[in-house]
Specification:
The chain has 231 residues and is an alpha+beta fold. It is built from 7 helices and 8 strands, in the order αααββαβββααβββα.
Length: 231
């Protein structure tokens, strides 16, 4: 549940309150929950939970996978668009400074769902002889590429996680080689004080990385500064 649960009072809608509780609950469980688990967590009968989930499904705010586990739905993306616009506005000057400092392509990536991340913004260097180019909106697997690996590293360790995720958790930033595009190196760090289930990362894409630590510290600093603006 939310770290600061809302106390229901007589002027509030209990049904809407319970529906929002389900969404907040699913944010903290990106792998999904069963209907029974949801009912137990929010303290309602399974039949009530079923009606709430069906309503959220109709609005594409949650969905069920083939194992009948319930997770957040793509309809939240449309609702989040105004927030993402604010995120892009705050992030742009930070990305511009990062790309000028490193002469590499800087990117802002958000978690799309439990399996994918989405490229929200790209800033390319103006003076570099050559640089990596991506298109905004590109969707990639969360377990491939530095942005997704950084987000997974921000969550508690999983028994079957890749060694690169474990290493990223220790270093504070993730590095990947040729996982999104051949010959492209990625270096990314998550924006602090954001829930891993709805993660945001700042990173670099480049062809050579002779000093991973220097680049890693640069993206960590950029992510920290964006996190301060988002508080």
């Amino acid at each position: 549940m939310s770290e600061n649960p809302v106390q229901l009072d007589s002027g509030m809608s209990k049904t809407l309150h319970n529906g929002l509780e389900i969404l907040e609950l699913l944010v903290t469980h990106p792998r999904g929950l069963t209907l029974t688990e949801i009912a137990e967590e929010i303290g309602v009968h399974r039949t009530v939970a079923h009606r709430l989930v069906r309503t959220l499904e109709a609005h594409r705010l949650c969905r069920r996978d083939r194992f009948k586990r319930i997770s957040l739905g793509n309809g939240l993306v449309r609702l989040a668009e105004p927030v993402e616009q604010d995120l892009r506005t705050l992030a742009r000057p930070i990305l511009e400074e990062l790309t000028e400092l490193t002469q590499a392509t800087a990117h802002l990536v958000v978690r799309e769902n439990e399996r994918q991340v989405r490229m929200l913004m790209i800033v390319e260097p103006r003076q570099a002889r050559m640089h990596v180019s991506f298109r905004p909106g590109q969707v990639d697997p969360i377990d491939r590429g530095s942005a997704g690996l950084a987000m997974l590293a921000a969550a508690p360790a999983a028994p079957d996680e890749r060694a690169e995720i474990t290493r990223a958790r220790g270093r504070g930033f993730a590095v990947s080689y040729g996982e999104i595009a051949p010959s492209v190196i990625g270096v990314s760090a998550t924006v602090p004080d954001r829930d891993p289930a709805g993660g945001v990362s700042i990173g670099l894409s480049l062809f050579e990385a002779p000093d991973e630590d220097r680049l890693g510290h640069a993206v960590v600093d950029a992510a920290r500064r964006l996190g301060q603006l988002l508080r």
